[in-house]
């Protein structure tokens, strides 16, 4: 099965690159979101909210993985090529390289046209921080942070789990990540109910986030004639500064490769949050760095896919 998974995930990358997520097709994440909202409204009150949140995630993962396992297994039982194509399609719904690239370009275009209000509007679609009063450099930084962090969350991590368990495990990862994005917040409303979602997300991203940071440096040329050794050192120095145990790996790698600094002052719901700086501010942060972040993301996905083929090939030979 490992070779079928490799073929399916590679085809999934191609499908996503060509068509992304067509709006006219139903998307699994939309269904996951409805399930989470349904249970959150009914269970996130009273006592034992942490247990209720765990039970919700258990149900979500069982449904997400179980239903897809039946569909994929049935397709493979009919014909191997049908199984690969069905699996590839579902894996493609768990990754979002095309959508992430376009979301960044939607911010970049008005930014270079000096239309900050329009840039802030499009940025608000992809970040949780307050965007109303952000200046050009802050908009640029927020966009780059989103692209670099979601290179792992939105692309390489699902591919990693697709190698291990095909489309069903990739979909389970997407369910975990969706749960975290909806209820995994450390605030009064979600700190207990979203505890399981947040911890599962930390666990599932532990390995792929670190692989992504390393691959990003290996498959991209550092700016300003810096050596890759220097970039690796900065990555190891700064990745752990992020409040999330995993998000810093993509951000620190992108920052050091471009010679810029990420992190700093953000505002969430009117509350100021000071985030540790990552990378060294060797050059001024400019809108063109958004395009550079997109290029880093694309090359990283290419390198990550090659690595998965190497791992999968060794696995196949040894077993």
From TrEMBL:
Pathway: Cofactor biosynthesis; adenosylcobalamin biosynthesis
Main location: membrane
Transmembrane segments: 51-72, 296-318
A GO MF term: ABC-type vitamin B12 transporter activity
Membrane topology qualifier: Multi-pass membrane protein
Any one GO cellular component localisation term in the record: plasma membrane
Pfam families associated with the record: CobD_Cbib
Function: Converts cobyric acid to cobinamide by the addition of aminopropanol on the F carboxylic group.
Family: Belongs to the CobD/CbiB family.
HAMAP family, per database record: CobD_CbiB
Protein name: Cobalamin biosynthesis protein CobD
Lineage summary: Bacteria, Bacillati, Bacillota, Bacilli, Bacillales
Gene field: cobD
